[in-house]
Amino acid sequence: MGLSPRAVDAFDRAYYEKYYFNALTAVTSRQETNARAKLVTAYAGYIGAPVRRILDAGCGTGMLRAPLLRAFPRALYVGIEVSEYLCKRYGWVQSSIEDYKTAHPCDLVICYDVLQYLDDRHATRAISALGDSCLGILYFTALTSEDWAGNCDQRRTDSNVHLRMAAWYRTRLRRKFREIGAGFWIRRGAPFVVWSLESVN
Fold this sequence. Notes:
This protein has seven helices and seven strands. By secondary structure, the chain is α/β, with parallel strands linked by helices. The chain has one domain (about 10-200): Rossmann fold, CATH 3.40.50.150.
């Protein structure tokens, strides 16, 4: 699955206890996650995107699930994860992003802080797979070398990752998406109007 240098089975209970369940060392909080969900749902509403199916690619502990479904109560939420521990605990679909196949692409796809765990070849394939899974909006972030140098709290951030420049991701995402800003991308061909000054050229 391209998860290097960490093996898939290292995404175990101890990993999530440190980075998600322990408030002293957690990389995120419920407050931050709720704010992120509000951003995603507000943007979908702003451009008039119908959200009937949501794919949370690398959903982790599923912190986005409840706030997303509060905003889109009729939507089907699918969370995929490589971690056997999380899939058993939460019932997610066990799959890597690049291997996940669906007959029903989603209106909203979220891939938040996952692809830094993949090497270049597998990350490229995962980005292509995100394009295949998405009909409308992609919300995408990944830890970049710029973020590691100047933005993140390194004491709370897993360093056992592949650090790449933001431009590396943008080059590959632009093959199937157009960038709107603030982590949002729209699938090429999707029928949404976005004004020029609200887009990233």
